[in-house]
Amino acid sequence: MMEKRRSRAVAVLLFLVPVSVFTACLFGAYDTSVAQVFNVFKNSLLGDVDSSTSSLSFIVTDLRLSRVCLSFLVGISLAVAGTVYQGILRNPLADPFTLGVSSGAAFGASLAIFSGSTVFGAGLWLKFGSLFLPLAALAGAMAALGAVLMLGRIGGSLRRETMVLAGIVVATFLSALISLLKSLDEDSVTSIVFWIMGSFQGRGWEHVTLFLPYFIAGMIPIIYYSRELDILSLGETQARHLGMDVSRVRLFLLVGSGLLTGAAVAVSGIIGFVGLIVPHLVRMFQGAEHRPLLLSSSLLGGLLLVWSDVIARSLLPGGEELPVGVVTALLGGPFFCIVLRGGLKGARS
């Protein structure tokens, strides 16, 4: 029964992916019809793009399709990272945002931007900054996660009830450091705020190309150790009794999740709650086994961010855009309260 439900859910999500990608390419400042977008895709696949349709082809494939693909990949990354964090830490409130990992990545990116404009010079930064930024974001993400794990470890074991509190403390501290960087160099304020707010505005295929190596490198250990996540979710003691090298498996999973989060923040800024909402929604209809959970969470996370970005660039009149982080926060804030209240009731009972 559960297998049939999982198969149907995956089939529906797989069907929605191309439909959503095509539909999302219809939205933008320049009005396009379904037939025009369909013809652009058809002509691009056939290699038949002439000068009369080159402008429309540029709008659909270079501006819109690249943005949709990037938002889909970032959504996958955040949803998968949230699923892994919740599985390892056995905490339903764990995700890159609540654990402070996103803030750590944002601080790493902000520090790189600050250093680029004040130490190395704007010209050198423009030339090599895009390559260095994901590494800086990754270092910040891993440092923040290490701090949360250290603060949440009491008496030699991770305490679920202290993890989110430790994440809030670390995120608040890093936000203060980001504000300090902004106040030290006014020239970098715009660039730093641009990263922090969370947006896909101005993103193109170069950002997809930059993101893909980190995405693949992060997904490999998570897919490889996806079965071990089921054992880890039982607790460290039980996992060791079953013969698992807990430290090694957890390290690879955390590095993979850190790569996904750091790279996602580097190309899109802080986008909260995707990693929190999606795993819970998927568990409701197909259980907690991690291999199918990771697959469905990745598809649903990608779809959620594609449509959140469509809402962000369509809600305001006059072509203005909301940061996509605002849309996910409006969706995720009430959901976080529901999960938190459910967790507190469970702890009391």
Which parts are unreliable, with pLDDT below 50 for 5 consecutive residues or more?
A: none
Radius of gyration, whole Å: 21 Å
How many individual helices? 14
Averaging pLDDT over every residue, what do you get? 83
First-last Cα distance = 30 Å
Instruction: Note the run of SSEs as H and E.
Output: HHHHHEEHHHHHHHHH
Largest β sheet strand count, sense and barrel closure: 2 strands, antiparallel
The count of strands amounts to 2
The residue fraction in helices comes out at over 70%
What is the subunit arrangement here? Answer: single chain
Main β-sheet, spatial strand arrangement: 1-2
Outline: globular
Strand content: under 5%
* Class per helix and strand makeup: mainly alpha
Give a structural overview.
The chain has 14 helices and 2 strands; from the N terminus they run αααααββααααααααα. With about 350 residues, the protein is mainly α. It has a two-stranded antiparallel sheet. It is globular. The two termini are about 30 Å apart. About 45% of the residues are buried.
Question: How is this fold's topology laid out?
Answer:
Elements: H1 2-24, H2 34-46, H3 54-89, H4 101-120, H5 122-152, E1 153-154, E2 157-158, H6 160-184, H7 189-197, H8 205-224, H9 226-232, H10 236-241, H11 246-268, H12 274-286, H13 290-314, H14 324-348
Antiparallel strand pairs: 1-2
